[in-house]
Design a protein that fits this description.
Elements (H helix, E strand, L loop, with lengths): L8 H15 L7 E3 H8 L3 H13 L3 E4 L3 E4 L4 H21 L6 H17 L5 H21 L4 H13 L2 H29 L1 H20 L5
Antiparallel strand pairs: 1-3, 2-3
Length: 219
Amino acid sequence: MSEIDTRSLTDRVYDYLLERIIAGAIKYGETLSIRAIAEELKISTMPVREAVKRLAFEQIVEIKPRSSCQVKVPSRSMIADVYDAREMLELHALSKCLNRPDPEKLAALWRIVEEMRAVEHEKDSATREKRAVELDRRFHAGVCALAENEYVDQFYRQLALHVNMTLIHEKTYDKLRKQYYESHAEILRCLEKDPPAALEVLRKHFRDTKKVLLNNDRE
């Protein structure tokens, strides 16, 4: 028997919009029509309105006139704060598993890293960047999963909302491309052979990424 989805319709609409924002299918600054979303999902506008109110409360969208909302564009200071929070969260996750990393979770991270290497050979730049964005998100979510703490997973998911990975990599991917595969692989190599060193490698990874990101020509 298939698993029964016990979430309310509002929760399902919220999760649907959330996942599309995280994946980059909905861009920062994009205006969304509540009626159009309802028509797309073949539901009434009420659960869509409630889901949008929840996203607005979480500072992800701003409600606009004419039954619409706009996905907020993060400021430089917000991105810096979010990256600092992500660094603390992932360092905590790594520190919790230094002596006992789950072999299956570690193997899953290596598979993601190998996919990162393969992405480098993708000829279409748009496809390459989109794929790289998704793999980066999966890798860092996987690092958080090493802590085996559902609240850490939830906090990471919330932070990922506020800095859309697509926006970041559209601005920085070319500058980070040479170290994209290697920096992630080095974290895992250290975790296997010299666990305490993995913490410093992860710190450097965040410092380098944030430096490139904040030095871009933004607002």
